């Protein structure tokens, strides 16, 4: 994490991008075990194919977790007040995801000065997988 200066946060500030290694089966298994999401569509190619998919694919919450890492690489976790995400597409094996964020507003939320940060992740082809918004305390 870089040195976070809440007084220096400005609208338009870009968070340092988080580039991840391509999604692989081991990654899906490890996340499934850690999160408890052992849905076989993410782990078993036969199940995925029976459901019409070409192969297994990443858990949506794995992509959300990467956005959480983007934010906590920028600011301490104790400052994260909210993270809302919307799933836009399936993250397939081999997708190399990059997470990005931009401060779009400085606002008062329940008496606390916060940065509103738009976040997203996309694959190496520029296809959006998740979009969302976070509130980070600047108080």
From TrEMBL:
Residues 19-120 form the MaoC-like domain. This is MaoC/PaaZ C-terminal domain-containing protein. It holds the Pfam family MaoC_dehydratas. It comes from Rhodanobacter lycopersici. The lineage of its organism: Bacteria, Pseudomonadati, Pseudomonadota, Gammaproteobacteria, Lysobacterales. InterPro entries: HotDog_dom_sf, MaoC-like_dom.
